[in-house]
């Protein structure tokens, strides 16, 4: 039992560390690629690593079975993730400073709770309301650079894109509750469908250019560690632990660690308003989680 818990912490911390680097990876790679190009090349990379894992685990038969049993769900999930969600998210990162985009993106868990009321018939609790007020006030602080009552947004379009990405990510996980497939198999199917959709979209919108060496490394990094293998580490942690809350609480380290990478690798000055807003967002999410 103790050995399993120790392994769970290791896998969880690896996941947290890798997810903490992706905001920096997004921003650096978007210097060389457009959001659509980053989406295409990173999705291909993720499809490759997930396909390799599926083949190693001898689960190709499960892939065909899943597509045969739930074809419409596979199409819907693939359209959301990776296609629409990451296209919107990368565009938000292209417009906003990394510290703003990543902080807003963390409110997806709250959006998930609200959408669960509509789609999963769950009850809206007092904790959800309190958490919402705290978290979205944090979003207001970060998007106005510390002047929430001025309503003078640094970039309203970018903020709306970042918020829209939280809605898409929440819908993805809500619809994913209907999936009967193994998690890795389901994720591979999503990317298989998503890459086809992205390819068709590229054909109808004029094509993309071949990436430079720097762009290739960035896209591969995003595909491997944001979209692909990190989810596998996290799932391993969840399956090995005897206390889910101990593992899930580690994820709150990620946004603060991410700020360190953003500052030192991108050179963004981390604003006091960002730190305050991030504390509010994380506090709201912890209140919501602990209350339940």
What descriptors fit this protein?
292 residues, globular, 13 helices, single chain, mainly alpha
Characterization of the model:
- By secondary structure, this protein is mainly α.
- It has one domain (2-291).
- 80% of the residues lie in helices and 0% in strands.
- It has helices at residues 2-29, 35-56, 60-69, 71-95, 98-105, 108-119, 126-143, 156-176, 183-205, 213-240, 244-248, 254-266, 272-291.
Assign a percent range to the helix content.
Answer: over 70%
Task: Tell me, rounded to a whole number, the average pLDDT.
Answer: 90
Reported for the largest beta sheet, the result is: none
Structurally, the number of domains stands at 1
Global geometry: globular
Order of helices and strands: HHHHHHHHHHHHH
Spell out the blueprint of helices and strands.
Layout (H helix, E strand, L loop, with lengths): L1 H28 L5 H22 L3 H10 L1 H25 L2 H8 L2 H12 L6 H18 L12 H21 L6 H23 L7 H28 L3 H5 L5 H13 L5 H20 L1
Helix pairs in contact: 1-5, 1-10, 1-12, 2-4, 2-9, 2-10, 3-9, 4-5, 4-8, 4-9, 5-8, 5-12, 5-13, 6-8, 7-13
Give a quick rundown of the structure.
This protein has 292 residues and is mainly α. It has 13 helices and no strands.
């Amino acid at each position: 039992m103790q050995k399993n818990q120790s392994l769970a912490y290791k896998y969880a911390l690896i996941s947290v560390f890798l997810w903490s680097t992706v905001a920096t990876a997004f921003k650096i790679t978007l210097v060389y690629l457009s959001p659509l190009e980053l989406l295409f090349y990173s999705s291909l990379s993720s499809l490759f690593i997930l396909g390799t894992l599926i083949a190693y685990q001898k689960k190709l038969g499960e892939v065909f079975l899943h597509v045969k049993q739930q074809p419409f769900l596979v199409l819907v999930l693939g359209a959301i993730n990776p296609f629409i969600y990451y296209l919107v998210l990368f565009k938000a990162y292209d417009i906003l400073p990394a510290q703003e985009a990543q902080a807003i993106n963390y409110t997806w868990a709250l959006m998930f709770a609200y959408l669960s009321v509509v789609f999963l018939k769950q009850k809206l609790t007092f904790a959800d309301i309190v958490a919402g007020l705290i978290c979205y006030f944090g979003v207001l602080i970060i998007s106005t650079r510390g002047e929430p009552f001025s309503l003078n947004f640094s970039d309203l379009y970018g903020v709306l894109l970042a918020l829209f990405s939280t809605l898409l990510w929440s819908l993805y996980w809500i619809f994913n509750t209907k999936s009967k497939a193994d998690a890795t198999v389901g994720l591979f199917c999503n990317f298989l469908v998503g890459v086809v959709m992205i390819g068709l979209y590229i054909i109808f919108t004029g094509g993309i250019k071949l990436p430079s060496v720097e762009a290739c490394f960035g896209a591969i990094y995003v595909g491997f560690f944001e979209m692909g293998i990190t989810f596998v580490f996290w799932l391993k942690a969840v399956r090995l632990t005897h206390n889910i809350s101990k593992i899930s609480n580690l994820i709150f380290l990620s946004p603060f660690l991410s700020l360190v990478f953003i500052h030192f690798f991108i050179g963004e000055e981390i604003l006091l308003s960002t730190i305050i807003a991030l504390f509010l967002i994380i506090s709201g999410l912890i209140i919501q989680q602990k209350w339940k």
